[in-house]
Write a structure and sequence with these properties.
Elements (H helix, E strand, L loop, with lengths): L1 H27 L4 H11 L1 H27 L5 H12 L6 H15 L2 H12 L1 H50 L6 H16 L1
Helix pairs in contact: 2-6, 6-7
């Protein structure tokens, strides 16, 4: 009977050990480039970066157009159309242009299992809701949290000032007043006069 238990325990330990070893191996396996890109897409990173790049490009175009029109106030429609062609022939870089720099960072810090878990979560309804609501939550948290931090800092500053004032008063009470130099000289003179008598 004891032998059966020992074999069963050994078998369980071996299976658990193999499972843990396999889990550790999975955890240390870096994610593939495709996995990282899938995670970025699931998290909305690609969409946000591309939207940001488009906004930046439009602002640059508008600024350049304004500057051109200041220097050339008499520019006609044909000239402005050619200016637009210059803008269109000089596209800003894209998200794809920067992925080669971003992917290795994800691969360095995350395992394939981590990335897959992120893909699974951000592809789920809960993950999508979180991503959708996160900008609003962040903005409101900054507003509310900022006000609370201001209040807490003011209360802290007031309390610290009160305690420092009390501490200073205690130090001043404990320190004997400095002797008046002219009185000390008078006392010394009196002592010298008394000794000479």
């Amino acid at each position: 009977m004891f032998r059966r238990w020992a074999v069963l325990v050994l078998l369980c330990a071996t299976m658990c050990g193999a499972g843990l070893a396999q889990g550790v191996a999975l955890d240390s396996t870096p994610p593939s480039r495709a996995q990282v890109l899938q995670l970025m897409a699931a998290m909305g990173i690609r969409q946000r970066v591309e939207a940001g790049l488009e906004t930046t490009q439009n602002k640059l175009k508008a600024t350049a157009r304004t500057e051109f029109q200041k220097k050339n106030p008499d520019a006609d429609a044909a000239t402005l159309k050619k200016l637009d062609e210059v803008f269109d022939s000089t596209p800003l870089f894209s998200f794809a242009d920067i992925t080669e720099a971003l992917v290795p960072v994800y691969q360095k810090h995350l395992s394939a299992a981590d990335v897959q878990a992120g893909i699974d979560f951000y592809s789920s309804d809960a993950g999508k809701r979180l991503l959708e609501k996160l900008p609003v939550i962040t903005r409101e948290s900054n507003e509310t949290g900022g006000q609370l931090v201001q209040q807490k800092l003011k209360a802290y500053s007031d309390e610290l000032e009160r305690k420092l004032t009390a501490f200073q008063a205690g130090v001043e009470k404990a320190t004997p007043p400095a002797a008046d130099p002219s009185k000390a000289a008078d006392d010394k003179q009196k002592t010298t006069d008394e000794k000479s008598k």
